[in-house]
Specification:
By secondary structure, the protein is of the alpha+beta class. It is built from 5 helices and 3 strands; from the N terminus they run E-E-E-H-H-H-H-H. Helix 1 runs antiparallel to helix 2. It is globular and about 40 Å long.
């Protein structure tokens, strides 16, 4: 599915479909791109902030935390990024004071 000139979402699952327990856990793949890494990451943040998945457990919050992590944003990552940065697993996004102020309005 093409969601714009710089966003693509690939999925073999449609609304109302059943997902078997034997199905590949990756039910959808979203890609963004831009003239720069920062532009592509900004588009991905927007996509993840507006992604709606109902009926199954998903990891969009975790993915949002990964792509906004300073080390990931710098591009200085390896295949050990997740165990190094989330050694105790993902516990959810910790809001900054600015985040809280924005949410409260």
């Amino acid at each position: 599915t093409n969601l714009g000139a710089h966003v693509r979402c690939d999925s073999g699952v449609r609304e109302g479909a059943d997902i078997s327990i034997y199905y590949d856990p990756m039910i959808s793949k979203t890609c963004t791109w831009g003239r720069t890494r920062d532009e592509a990451l900004e588009r991905m943040r927007d996509v993840l902030d507006n992604y709606v998945i109902q009926g199954v457990t998903h990891n969009t919050n975790f993915l949002r935390s990964v792509i906004t992590h300073p080390r990931f944003m710098s591009g200085k990552i390896t295949t050990k990024f997740i165990p190094e940065e989330f050694p105790n697993g993902y516990k959810g996004q910790i809001l900054t004071s600015e985040d809280k102020h924005t949410l409260i309005g």
